[in-house]
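Re: the multi-chain job from yesterday

Posting the exact lines I submitted so nobody has to dig through the queue logs.
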Amino acid sequence: MSAIGPPVGALELVVTIVAAWVALGALGLVRPHSLRFVSRLIFPAGACVALLLTVIAFLSLDAPPQSLVMPLGLPDLPFHVRLDPLSAFFLLLIGAASFGVSLFSAGYFRASEGTPPGLICFQYHVFLAAMASVVVADDAYAFMVAWEAMALASYFLVTTEHRIPEIRRAGFLYLLIAHIGAIAILLCFGVLQAGGDDYTFDTMRNMTLIGAWPTAAYFLALVGFGAKAGLLPLHVWLPEAHPAAPSPVSALMSGVMLKTAIYGLLRVTFDLMHVQLWWWGVVALALGVVTALFGVIYAAVQTDMKRLLAYSSVENIGIIVAGFGLTILFRAYGKNLLAAITLTAVLYHALNHAFFKTLLFLVTGSVLHATKERSLGKLGGLIHRMPWVAWLALVGTLAIAGLPPLNGFVSEWLLLQAFLFTPSLPQSFVNMLVPLAAAGVVLAVALAAYVMVKFYGVVFLGRPREAHLAYAHDAGRFERFGLVWLAAGCIALGILPVNVIQAIDPVNAMLLHSSAISAGGGNWLLLAPINADRSSYSPLIVLVVIIATVVLTMRIVHRFYHGRIRTAPPWDCGFPLQTPRMQDSAEGFGQPIRQVFEPFFRIERHLPTSFDAAPRYFVRIGDPFWSWIFLPIAHAAEFAARIVGLIQQGRISVYLTYSFFTLLALLFFVR
Amino acid sequence: MTIASFLTQLLELAIAVALAPLLVGWVNMCRAWLQNKSAPSLLLPYRTIRKLFMKDAVVAQSASPIFRTTPYIVFGAMCCAAAIVPSLATDLPFAQAADAIALVGLFALARVFIALAAMDIGTAFGALGARREMFVGFLAEPALLMVLFTASLISGSTSLPTIVDALAHRELAIYPSLAFAGVAFTMVSLAENARIPIDNPSTHLELTMIHEAMVLEYSARHLALLEWASALKLFNYSCIGLALFFPFGIAAAGDWLALIGAAPALIFKLAIGGVALAFIETLSAKLRIFRAPEFLGTAFLLAVLAMLVNLLLGG
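And the result, structure tokens for all chains:
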């Protein structure tokens, strides 16, 4: 993408950066209890390293693949690493998002009851290093080591406040599902390796799987990476782990770590395997749409701001996976150009989500610090107390709601364009199915706007619902830097789509041997995926025209009339008594959605009787997947354990009897 | 982009901004006639807007800058939308920058900002209106998009001028998909423009209002802009409907003669459309808010059906 080309030895630099992150983290252990040392020195240094990684990854996006054998690992089983456009894109994502998060973290962490700051710093940097290693790993062994390191580091980060039992439980759930996923991924690599000599990805690329094996590998990958990404029904850890973790960690996990799962899916499906069957795409498409709708409907009824964002992540992952399914579909029918456009939409949305979701999770961190409240029902009016955070959060809110001219809209636009191309597919059944999926995606996107208005309106607008919110303070200097970087990213990705698509096009060339821009009739200003007659979009022009209209209208109104303004108490139809508690709470704002989608929720209502001395009303909304899948499994496991428990009587005579009967049985067989 | 097409673009925008309040006045007039009332003047909306511009703006103490900039943003978004929709001619340079999906995005932008502004003051009615508006929007927006998708599938493009060109130059026949889409579109437009049966533009009855609840706190120039913007929204929706389902008389690129004929044709079509709207409003009753999802869900399903029918029958 640049005239200067990729830096020499970009891969070596990436490896050095990973090592630097680990070293910086280890440095935090030198003085584990010194908050000043960690936050003023190590986190900013980590941020610089992240920025360096961003630059290197950007420069090597269109470079030829480089690979390296590391002098690490077991004897005869060294780590292989490789930097190709796909890895470079995800390194770019990791670097850019973690730059913002590291800067924010420099001002965020406080001394607390839980893990000491030095240890947090170590876990945090190991987490970053592990994510970067996952995307450069070039053999199954290195990949699994990095993947496990990532899971463990994030587990420890989630349980930072480990003295609270709920948080320990959330951490355990996360670890459990992460390992279910890891087993599936391990099996997937086993299938892909197909009895070859070693476990390098190169061997897997050269293998040709036959029969049902490719399908087995694909579905193992879908389960394994889906567990990490939060696909239905393995999404249950997200709404538990995200509220438990400190906000920068939630931001990293949601914005960045979920994307490593998308990376894994793309790597396995398009790089390590050579065939893609059309019905894999249909499955992924259906799963993605259902996940997106489920996530957004649940997000609409949440009352905890981080849980709301966690469900919104489920929604976004659903959209990304739906796009992934559509890519497979196009690819399976040999429509490589359309597949390239869809893949571009997938990657674009992953990048967008990394920016706006990270931004919003960090915002919840600032709000949490300023108010000590996580429940939406106790916030409100923070735009007056925390203008920096509020205005930057507005950017993220508009972006995630998919509004032009910000970045969320671009990827959704591209994806919808891709959906509109399906009538060119040869199978009429699929042709009928895909528009239904498009309708589902559109519905999810429209509901996302509802969710985000709720989030922003309840937290930042209106009047403060609690008295102590009057003492809320704005974010500090480092936190502001981090937020500004991410918000600027949302805007830049929104108004410069052509440049972004050009930059990520080498990934299409690598995975699909096709380019999304070659056929386009647009120029730097105009995004036109197929040709300008068919569809085109130019966010910059839209932005300029809107701003011009706004400024012009303002000038005209003030010039011809006047700019006089008076302030007064709110009118509210003349009702004399108004308290901040009369505003919509989070429950109230989500109530219409709850009513419409009532059959999909598991609702627990507590209604007071008319004789209650202290009446209380509450509604709890549970995730039905617990009662559908997880609790039955847990009960079955407990039941099995009880059965096994029956034979453990704890008396030596009983055990001797068991031995006796075993011997008898053996004698009977051996005889 | 030639100067001629640029001028066409400006002309169309100017006509939209100028005529929008007239359309509202015309609908109100027809409705009053149908309900056996003596009608207000056709120019009443203009006078209202002028009166509001003269007044001093009163802003609540708890308002943030979002509250004060929202009217301008909403007005700007509606102007942008008016510039995309081919009402007079299909030679619109700005339509290249934003296609049908972006049009829906612009409407969503306006909706989100009005809803945020309504929540900004922190009154009970504001939040109630915001919640209901987003509630109506979450079904209406996909339905509108599906209607536009149906038209895109017929014409193979999401660019509105291309769609209109394609639809205007097909042979005259009944397209079942367009019939479905037309019904869906009518339902969506009623909901989106705060009309009966979803909302009633002429009451301030607290417990049933949607749009009016959101703009309760606005006064003077801010209110004037919002009123104008909602008139523009009605105008835009009417023009989208006319462009998709009655695309006759819209001038093609470079056809100056047709452009002169296009303006009277547009006014004629809008007048008929206004009468139809007044009829619908007079003949139907307002729905309870929780019946709204059924109404809009029907619209959404009809629009999806339209798309499927189009794929099945090929247009």
